[in-house]
Specification:
This protein is an alpha+beta fold. The chain has one domain: Glutaredoxin. It contains three helices and four strands, in the order βαβαββα. The protein has helices spanning 12-28, 40-45, 69-75; strands spanning 2-7, 32-37, 53-56, 59-63. A four-stranded mixed sheet has the order 2-1-3-4. Strand 1, helix 1 and strand 2 (32-37) form a beta-alpha-beta unit.
Length: 76
């Protein structure tokens, strides 16, 4: 099972990113665990300067916007 973290302070785009990833995973039948990380100290550990950011298996794979569907499919 893949672990995907969405980093962000709780902004609308962060929530949309989390929901979007969950929706696509459900459509594709992919089993994932999605975690929301809003603690600033935890976000800084990933050296992320713009959110929302997506971390896949502890590697930052996207920052600064809601990812496109094809990107999410690639991660799954």
């Amino acid at each position: 099972m893949k672990v995907i973290k969405v980093l962000g302070s709780g902004c609308a785009k962060c929530s949309q990113t989390m929901d979007f990833i969950k929706e696509i995973a459900q459509q594709e039948g992919a089993e994932i665990e999605v975690e929301k990380v809003s603690d600033l100290a935890e976000i800084m550990k990933y050296k992320v300067m713009s959110t929302p950011a997506v971390v896949l298996d502890e590697k930052v794979v996207h920052t600064g916007s809601i990812p496109k569907k094809d990107q999410v499919l690639e991660w799954l």
